[in-house]
Amino acid sequence: MAHDDKAAQARALRDALSAFATGVTIITTRGADGEPLGMTASSFNSVSMDPPLILWSVTKTAWSGPAFRDAPHFAVHVLASDQSGLSNTFARPGEDKFSGVDTADNANGVPTLPDAAARFDCRNWAVYEGGDHWIIVGEVLHFERQKREGLVFCNGGYATANPIRPPSTAADEPSGESDVDNMLFYQLSRSYRQMAQQVHAAVIECGLTLPEWRILASLDPSSSRDLPDLAARTFVEPHALPDMLQSLAADDLCSVAVDGDRMTASGTEKGAARVAHLLSMSTALEKTALAGTSDAERDILYTQLKRIIANTNT
Ligand SMILES: Cc1cc2nc3c(=O)[nH]c(=O)nc-3n(C[C@H](O)[C@H](O)[C@H](O)COP(=O)(O)O)c2cc1C
Questions:
Q1: Residues 27 and 38: beta-carbon distance below 8 Å
Q2: Is the peptide bond before 174 cis (omega within 30 degrees of 0)?
Q3: Using one digit for the tens of pLDDT, what is the confidence trace for 189-212?
Q4: Domain end among 154, 189, 218
Q5: What is the helix (H) or strand (E) element at residue 241, kind and residue range?
């Protein structure tokens, strides 16, 4: 196989594997000289209940790979949904990952991190060859659980796990139609509310406010929008927009241009990356919401909704 084909195959394989949603862990240990070591790993999985075994795999080329292979003990931290920053810190090679992180040694002298959704203190039980990785099996000696939602990694990005609500059955529905069922206002607000629920929870989990999410979702790097346009799209009061936009711009999540008293904003790559998983979640939800709807019906629905927006845009 030509080199380019091989590289393309590898990319395609990685992409296909990324469809498998996993949790995210940080695994810590001490090196032979006692230095704290840690790395982000999503290859963690449970293996056996008796004896209690877990596994994960470490790439042989990782700086800390050989140390993990040889360490007698390690600790697995299952990250909570607000710990993607910590995950990024421990995924960077060659940094002092522990500086500024509050650690405490466990009974085996392994540095542990606070606030994980779960922690498993392990003894190195076996190491297997796994191609360019070592598969490390650990025996769980002690574990701790906090009632925190776990962080998810899927399609190359962080996400949160939101339970899928089972489709409501006839028994869940109020019996009989009432006048309100024939009100457009009721149908629109109920469908919006049901669709928005999961996305809004994910927005808050990723540290954005709902107005910030609406702003970032409305912007793209190749075009700009002025304040009246953005205000209408985001339900943010026009007078509140400049501050919000400047604060997003300070984090490089959008860029702002001022020309006289006209302010415009456009997206940045960082802003787009921040909301990418929320947009794919919205698209997936839309598919679910429109299950059983033909393309023609969908087009009519959109035309009608746009007409309602235009007719009521006072
Ligand atoms: C979400 C995520 C999951 C990862 N999972 C693994 C993994 O399971 N095994 C692995 O060897 N590297 C994994 N990595 C990459 C390592 O965290 C990265 O190579 C890190 O630099 C290793 O630490 P070190 O350079 O200090 O050895 C993952 C990175 C991310 C962002």
A1: yes
A2: no
A3: 899 888 888 888 888 888 888 889
A4: 154
A5: helix 241-250
Cβ proximity of 47 and 55 under 8 Å = yes
Atom of ligand 1 nearest to the CA of 41: 5
What residue owns the CA closest to ligand 1's atom 15? 91
152 C-alpha to ligand 1 centroid (Å): 15
In a domain, 76, yes or no: yes
Which residue's C-alpha comes closest to atom 14 of ligand 1?
A: 41
**Ligand 1 atom with least separation from CA of 56:** 8
Q: What is the pTM of this model?
A: 0.61
CB 281 less than 6 A from any atom of ligand 1: no
Amino acid residing at 16: A
Q: What is the pLDDT of residues 243-269, one digit of tens each?
A: 889 889 999 999 999 999 899 999 999
Mutate to test the pocket of ligand 1, among 26, 37, 40 (most ligand atoms within 8 A of CB): 40
Domain that holds residue 260: 170-312
107 in any annotated domain: yes
Asked if residues 122 and 46 have their Cβ atoms less than 8 Å apart, the reply is no
Rounded Cα distance, 172 and 274, in Å: 37
245-253's contacts with Cβ under 8 Å and 24+ in sequence apart are: 245/215, 248/212, 248/215, 248/216, 253/212, 253/216
Show the tokens assigned to 176: 């009989």
Whether 91 lines ligand 1, by a CB cut-off of 6 Å, is yes
